Amino acid sequence: MSDQFELDTLALRAGVHRSQFNENSEAIFLTSSFVFDNAAQAAARFSGAEAGYVYSRFSNPTVTAFQERLAALEGAEACVATASGMAAILAAVMGLLKGGDHIIASRSIFGASVQLFTNILPKFGLETTFVSATEVSEWQAAVRPNTRLLFLETPSNPLTEISDIPALSRVAKQAGAWLAVDNCFCTPILQRPLELGADIIIHSATKYPDGQGRVLGGAVLGPRELIMEGVFSFLRTAGPSLSPFNAWVILKGLETLRIRMEAHCRGALELARWLETLPQVARVYYPWLPSHPQHELARRQQKQGGGIVSFDVKGGRDAAWRMVDATRMISITANLGDVKSTITHPATTTHGRISAEARAAAGIGEGLLRVAMGLESIEDVKRDLARGLT
Ligand SMILES: Cc1ncc(COP(=O)(O)O)c(C=O)c1O
């Protein structure tokens, strides 16, 4: 279907398999298991000799619909849905790597991802070297004979650093490793990593794909063989699967993803420009500002700047917390990608559990705030933030 229709159409029409009732809006198949006509069919389904649904840990029509729709939007051959974004990263790593393999990861990634690579994966013999998100030479220098995975987010959370996907894809190919890109901040509406040379895409569907802050979900996408033999085989047995209900919520969220992303981007750009004019703000991080260090690269890789704006408030933690506490409308919460604007202090929330050294190395200071621009009036968002500046 992906070669016949534009993105807008795929967001609504990909993954549609109508039931015997011919419903227009996709049905939710809330069932743990599927019934067989007889014992021989059960055996054939379990062995894979006959195609068909078996058990919702690894096969469910609503989850399939979500997987097909997201795959169509990303231009990927295959997609495996997971219980959360973190489950997607875990499933990719556990499904594709083995003990003794080496990972190179950007230093500028979500706090829980840092923890996964630093505290959990070493227990299974996987070692990670952290490097700069933006210095390709550091990635090259970190390559070892056993390097199997390069992992990054672009734009990164929370500083919106941009990694050069085509350049890092060349490093990965030379090393015989896969390049995985967490496409959380952009979604396929703003950036399609596979077209830029990535091998694997990670999503936290909790964020923009749901878009209204309702459910957790995740996905791993890429070439069929890699995803089905590696990631799906792990998920099928280990079970960090997406529930059919959550799959349905996110599936319907994808239908409005483009118009939401455009509105998030419009608001975020205006917010970033306004913040840059304020004397109380030391620095604004937003890829569509000419002052952003990777502005040109962002314009090559992305269609727009995204919905996340981070900024350093003069006066450190006290000033940043004052600004958070003075808001009356913006939600003080760590989620992002919601239609309701959110504000968070990364150093004590999303990145609070990583070491102070890792935080400093990633450039996450005590005065840093991250706003995920929602769909409220931009004037109300500005007014709400301005309260804490006076
Ligand atoms: C960039 C990024 N990747 C992954 C995740 C993890 O997603 P989830 O919370 O769905 O596990 C997050 C969550 O905030 C994130 O911001």
- Total helical elements: 15
CATH topology (fold) name of the largest domain: Aspartate Aminotransferase, domain 2
Shape: globular
In this entry the ligands are: pyridoxal-5'-phosphate
Mean pLDDT: 96
CATH class of the largest domain: Alpha Beta
Helix content, binned percent: 25-40%
CATH architecture of the largest domain: 3-Layer(aba) Sandwich
Distance between the termini: 54 Å
The tally of beta strands, per DSSP, is: 12
What string gives the helices and strands in order?
Answer: HHHEHEHEHEHEHEEHHHEHEHEEHEH
Radius of gyration: 21 Å
Our count of domains comes out at 2
**What is the makeup of the main sheet?**
7 strands, mixed
Beta-strand proportion: 5-15%
Query: What is the CATH H-level superfamily of the largest domain?
Result: Type I PLP-dependent aspartate aminotransferase-like (Major domain)
Largest sheet, spatial ordering of strands:
1-7-6-5-4-2-3
Uncertain segments are: none
Pairing-aware structural class of the strands and helices? alpha/beta
Could you walk me through the main structural features you see in this protein, from its secondary elements to its overall organization?
39% of the residues lie in helices and 15% in strands. With 390 residues, it is an alpha/beta fold. The protein has 2 domains: 248 residues, Type I PLP-dependent aspartate aminotransferase-like (Major domain) (Aspartate Aminotransferase, domain 2), CATH 3.40.640; 132 residues, Alpha-Beta Complex (Aspartate Aminotransferase, domain 1). The chain has a 7-stranded mixed β-sheet, with helices on both faces. A 5-stranded mixed β-sheet has the order 8-9-12-11-10. Helix 4 crosses helix 9. The longest helix has 20 residues. It binds pyridoxal-5'-phosphate. The site of pyridoxal-5'-phosphate has 13 residues, from helix 4.
